[in-house]
Design goal:
The protein contains 14 helices and ten strands. The chain is an alpha/beta fold. Strand 2, helix 4 and strand 3 form a beta-alpha-beta unit. Helix 1 runs antiparallel to helix 14, helix 8 runs parallel beside helix 9 and helix 9 crosses helix 10. The radius of gyration is 19 Å and the shape is globular.
Amino acid sequence: MFSLISYILRFTKFTTQPRSSHYETLRSCSGQFETLSPKLIGAISQCIPKLTYDKHKGQSGRVCVIGGSVEYTGAPYFAGISALRCGADLCTIVTSADAATPIKSYSGELIVLPDFNAVDPAKAITSCLARYHTVLIGPGLGRDPVKLQIVEKVLREIKERKLPLVIDADGLHLITQRPEIIQGYQKAILTPNAIEFDRLFTKVCNKIPNEEEPIMDVKLLAKTLQVTVVLKGSVDIVSNGAYVLVVGTETSPRRCGGQGDLLAGFLSIFSYWTHLKRTQTYDNQQKHLKLYGPTMLAAVAACAMTRECNRRAFAKCRRAMLASDMIDEIGAVFEDMFGSQTDCQI
């Protein structure tokens, strides 16, 4: 177990000073919040399963990504590969037939199932849910009404099985149309950007969000839906309706496509790890897990990872930076942030 001093030393390796101007803007808001700290990073580190020789394939996490379409094949790839690079053992992409071959061609590490073209797509997808530890819905999914109806049926089964769930991108379009299908499911994490948040907030809270009070708005949406909400932006605001955590570590001005997909992939595997840890221990060392819960800790970890991968990739590539450049930074960022998480001598 690492000491607090080692956490602090590692923390200073991956982050520069937070963007104080953004924090000052938030400080003027009505809501109270906590920011990323070495102790919080330490709590997340304790949730990550160690690499040992006595585990078998799959024990460190089997992720299911439901998404992809003929127009958007990159999004589910980015989500899946980021989960694997973060430490998930297996990742399955459930998609449509016209997206399956391109996604397969991007990486041999991903399992790709064209289940949206099965005779009974909902049955084909739900029958496989027992294989997975965590599910991500949305990257590249598209807004085809028939497809969204299938996803709605799958969502019901996910809730029945009590699986950790992340909903991003076009999955949020479905939730904006039918918020009741996710309301009250506390293992769910929604990851809207500013535009997606405005639409969802207006639908659920029956009013327009107040740009001067983002803390209160995120907290209200999370409280109303009884889920965890991650509002992505210049700072990332995370709330479960009771508490608010803000991640404002340095990033870059580059906003290429795919970064939200990487965050969603990180989040899916971290959510499995934090939920698993909560079932294993209630000791005093896990006070942050008890206080904030597994979804908030997972969200903070994913936001911090994404921002640091972005910062490092931009430092090397500048304007030419792409999401694929961020993937190359995942291993080093993870180790600098959370340690090697292994007892093995390397």
